[in-house]
Give the backbone structure.
Amino acid sequence: MTPAANPRRAPRTEGRLFLAVPLPGRLSRSLGLFASRLKETIPGRYVTEDNYHVTLAFIGEAPLSLAQGLRPFLSETAAAFPAVPAELSNLGWFGKPANAILWAGLKNGEALLPLADALRAGLRQRHIRFDPKPVRPHITLARKADVAGRELPALPAGSGILDMLVLFHSTRVQGRLTYIPICSVPIGDQS
């Protein structure tokens, strides 16, 4: 008798990709603790703290192997810009009040815009498509949040240095949305 076949899926060769700056640990933890309390007053689908980031370019479906070819460009580009000291600033939302994206803003978040512009120009030169919407530096805390008629509280104090650029693969792991880093490079000259 032959053993039963072990059906396995072939490894994925494509995925949803985006370029982002992750939050440093201490800042992420502070924001995560705040969000855990916020869930009690503002219902929604909250993002896990290990997924907090500022998106600079959303590429979408693309080959995962893209990371290998992009690494030199990402490294050179990120090194040409300084790391960004950032502080939490305000809580806000996009969309409709009963189905909003709830976000945290950053003081000095606009300091990431020149890096975002350079990355987008480089992607264009390499004929890599990305979502052309303007970059609005923020950290998504929740999707499908119901902020209708609710006053948004002040964010806690929190600061950190944004010093890494990451090409993330957005996928589901055991049913949970997870952002997997497939290429990380430092921002600023680290020498």
In short: The longest strand covers residues 84-96.
